[in-house]
């Protein structure tokens, strides 16, 4: 159970199978396998049918053996089956919400069942609509988890799920204590070592993020959890780039081929599913180019077909921005058309969240193509729409942040149009959501200076200096 709560799914499945080797009639061991095969509830994208079938078989085995189980155990078994029931026809979100409600009913029936309350809380956080800016589910999850954590400070699920529940800009400071504690609760779990960086990223603690992610990479590579290593490296690379430690970020890029050679996209090991590894392989080189504003490098990135089109979109987006900035408008248009096709495929598959994310990328890319073509009003309209739509949603846990925040890109565009006062407002808004972000701070310095706001210029310059000198 401790492994399951730390999302060490491969090791958890092995442990549950060892239980079955001793007692083949243990229904709850099959329950544990079924829940482990769902993998990370916070993970992006729809589950693959072959993996869902494996989970359904485990849930069915648990149900067959449930005659000897207690009423409480039968509740857990019934709940996990809802993740897999009729998956060929019922969409993933509906099935997960059914699981969340089943766990909620269990927690309500028996408030003394702390495990039911814990599993209910993480299901609440995982099922939260990404457009709900009241964070109702996440706050409710936190209200369940925090009192339990006070009583059970070494429970691996509690600190872990508090971090996930509060993995949003307005809530992230509330997870700071859990972030500092979790790695010491489960120091042998690669995901436990990585998870604090979700909070550190949200509050701009880049050095802490780097340190904990490098520890995660070390454990993940040693235990052959390559998707987890790639995921941690994505967060580390993002943090390096905020500190302008470009050579360290380049070192991460250079390590990718060796990790990719060991990467099995279908393996169930740690918390990061194969899709997270695919995402990192696309995102890290794109981040490295865009954060440094190396437009030629961005334009030269080569898209690869992976089976996860929302990850492929990272490369097309970076290429489109790079091509527009270097004057290759034909390449930019081809990349934008690719984004449009990806968005359509995702929408057709019912991937509403990722369809919207790619639509936002397409708008941003079109905006810069329009600007390069001299159509300023159209460019600004598209960039403003991208910023508005990005603000209406949230980043997924698979990524430390967007490749280039839409509102920051809007600020950059306004600077190019010599409207620094407006640009400064956009950089300020970006920094509310992305604190200590280098590009937004640097943009704010330039915009404040160009608009004659010496107080703001001095303030942002001091923040930028503190960031790069290690004082924040």
Task: Provide structural commentary.
The chain is mainly α and 472 residues long. It folds into four domains: 1-161; 204-271; 293-404, no CATH class; 408-472, Alpha Horseshoe (Serine Threonine Protein Phosphatase 5, Tetratricopeptide repeat). 72% of the residues lie in helices and 0% in strands. It has helices spanning 2-5, 9-22, 27-38, 49-64, 71-81, 92-109, 114-126, 136-151, 156-165, 176-185, 190-194, 196-202, 206-222, 226-242, 246-261, 274-291, 295-300, 309-326, 329-348, 352-372, 376-391, 406-416, 420-433, 438-451, 454-469. Helix 14 (226-242) packs antiparallel against helix 15 and helix 19 packs antiparallel against helix 20. The mean pLDDT is 95.
What order do the helices and strands come in, and which of them pair?
Layout: H1 2-5, H2 9-22, H3 27-38, H4 49-64, H5 71-81, H6 92-109, H7 114-126, H8 136-151, H9 156-165, H10 176-185, H11 190-194, H12 196-202, H13 206-222, H14 226-242, H15 246-261, H16 274-291, H17 295-300, H18 309-326, H19 329-348, H20 352-372, H21 376-391, H22 406-416, H23 420-433, H24 438-451, H25 454-469
Helix pairs in contact: 2-3, 3-4, 3-5, 4-5, 5-6, 6-7, 7-8, 7-9, 8-9, 9-10, 10-12, 12-13, 13-14, 14-15, 14-16, 15-16, 16-18, 18-19, 18-20, 19-20, 20-21, 21-22, 22-23, 22-24, 23-24, 24-25
């Amino acid at each position: 159970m401790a492994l399951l709560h730390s999302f060490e799914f491969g090791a958890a499945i092995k442990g549950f199978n060892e239980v079955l080797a001793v007692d083949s009639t243990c229904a709850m061991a099959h329950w544990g396998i079924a829940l482990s095969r769902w993998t990370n509830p916070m993970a992006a994208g729809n589950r693959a049918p072959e993996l869902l079938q494996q989970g359904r078989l485990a849930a069915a085995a648990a149900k067959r053996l449930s005659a000897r189980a207690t009423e409480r155990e039968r509740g857990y078994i019934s709940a996990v089956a809802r993740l897999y029931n009729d998956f060929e026809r019922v969409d993933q979100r509906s099935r997960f919400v059914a699981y969340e409600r089943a766990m909620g009913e269990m927690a309500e029936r028996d408030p003394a069942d702390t495990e039911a309350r814990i599993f209910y809380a993480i299901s609440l956080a995982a099922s939260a609509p990404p457009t709900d800016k009241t964070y109702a589910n996440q706050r409710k999850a936190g209200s369940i988890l925090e009192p339990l954590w006070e009583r059970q400070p070494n429970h691996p699920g509690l600190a872990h799920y508090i971090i996930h529940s509060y993995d949003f800009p307005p809530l992230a400071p509330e997870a700071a204590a859990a972030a500092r504690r979790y790695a010491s609760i489960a120091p042998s779990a690669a995901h436990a070592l990585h998870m604090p960086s979700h909070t550190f990223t949200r509050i701009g603690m880049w050095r802490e993020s780097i340190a904990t992610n490098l520890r995660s990479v070390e454990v993940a590579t040693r235990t052959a959890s390559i998707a987890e290593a790639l995921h941690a490296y994505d967060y580390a690379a993002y943090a390096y780039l905020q500190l302008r430690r470009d050579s360290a970020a380049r070192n991460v890029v250079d390590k990718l081929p060796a990790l990719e050679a060991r990467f099995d996209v279908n393996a169930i090991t740690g918390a990061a599913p194969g899709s997270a590894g695919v995402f990192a392989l696309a995102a890290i080189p794109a981040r490295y180019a865009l954060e440094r504003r190396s437009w030629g490098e961005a334009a030269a990135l080569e898209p690869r077909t992976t089976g996860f089109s929302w990850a492929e979109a990272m490369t097309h987006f970076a290429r489109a921005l790079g091509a527009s900035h270097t004057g290759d408008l034909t390449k930019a248009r081809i990349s934008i058309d690719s984004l449009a096709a990806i968005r359509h495929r995702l929408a057709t598959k019912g991937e509403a969240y990722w369809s919207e994310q790619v639509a936002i990328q397409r708008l941003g890319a079109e905006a810069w193509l329009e600007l390069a073509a001299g159509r300023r009003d159209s460019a600004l309209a598209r960039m403003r729409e991208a910023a508005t739509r990005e603000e209406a949603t949230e980043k997924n846990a698979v990524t430390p942040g967007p490749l280039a925040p839409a509102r920051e890109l809007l600020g950059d565009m306004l600077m190019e149009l010599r409207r620094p006062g407006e640009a400064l407002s956009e950089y300020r808004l970006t920094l509310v959501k992305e604190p200590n972000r280098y590009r937004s701070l640097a943009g704010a310095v330039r915009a404040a200076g160009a608009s004659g706001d010496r107080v703001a210029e001095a303030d942002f310059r001091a923040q930028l200096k503190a960031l790069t000198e290690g004082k924040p």
